Amino acid sequence: MSQQFPWDIGVYDAHCHPTDTMASVADIPQMKATTLTIMATRGEDQDLVQQTAMSLGKSEQSPERAIPCFGWHPWFSHQIVDDTDANTAQQKEDHYMAVLSPAPTEDKSFINALLTPKPLSELIAETKARLQSCPNALVGEVGLDKAFRLPGIWSPDELENRDGQVTPGSREGRRLSPYKVKLDHQRTVLKAQLQLAGEMDRAVSMHSVQAHGAVFDTLKELWKGHERVVLSRRKRDKQQDAEGAVSEDEASAPDSKSPPPFPPRICMHSYSGPVEPIRQFLHPSNPSDVYFSFSSLINFSGAPARKITDVIKALPDDRILIESDLHTAGPQMDDSLEDVARQICKLRGWELRHGVQVLADNWQRFVFG
Fold first, then answer.
1. Burial class (CB in 10 A: 0-12, 13-18, 19+), 144
2. What is the pTM of this model?
3. Domains of the chain
4. Residues 6+ away with beta carbon under 8 Å from 93
5. Do residues 74 and 189 lie in contact, with contact meaning Cβ atoms separated by under 8 Å?
6. What confidence tens digit (pLDDT) does each residue in 207-265 have?
């Protein structure tokens, strides 16, 4: 018989989307999970995330039942026009021709069905205002995605079968078009949001599909000139003699009165990459602390694959988080969190209560620093 799951310790969902099914938000107060870290992704859900977090408030179980996260997902990055570059096309048709691949040259009906793009400066100003109004809010979900294709135009059948319970703006069951958002444009939208996170000293939840190298390169570009100085063993020994004990991982960053252009903490959500990139993300010279979260939905939908087993075993204890990544709150979300926590504890060789405590402590550090 399985050991009883220790919900009393505190269980924290590092990444979820209950506002995609607003009817399920009413189930959150009855959930066993302590706090949900709720992501925004596009224009239709920014206010919903903020309103949901405010409506849930605090409880005896947790200071906050929900942590709001504001950000523009790479799936919707085509809806943002870079008005910070004078050479960027500002007209709707010209913009979409420039940022989509292949360019929909012969598909004017597709362009007409797309939203009028929002200026990047406006997006950043709106997100900053939301972060200012929510002191514990994070930036997310943001990132890069090389695989995603835009949904096609609604067909009559798709419109007829549209689910009225689902918040508009996502794929909603539509057939996919051949069009992708160029990676350079995704990077422009991502970098602006990462810089805002640095300015506001907020952690970030990062989406990465087939793009771990590109995400790392983007971060490395922002980190340049701010790297932590990692002392050699010889220099550490000398400093110990001069100033007292210096920890094995101690590093120092250049002093600066202005905020850094990168977030203090990053979560690679539902990480699906191999072990090798982890070593890059966790290098001691990197000035952002990088965490890795895992979900039953993405990482453990079947028997644990060798890759995910190797990844979880390779990570330091203090950089692992759990998430549901579900679009519906309630018992299913609780079950998903329990399942992934048990899986991780088994792979790490942790006793269950100890493992759940480690995961809870990691979430607290990721969110609050």
1. buried
2. 0.92
3. 7-227+259-368 (3.20.20.140)
4. 108, 111
5. yes
6. 999 999 999 999 999 999 999 998 777 776 676 666 555 444 444 445 557 999 999 99
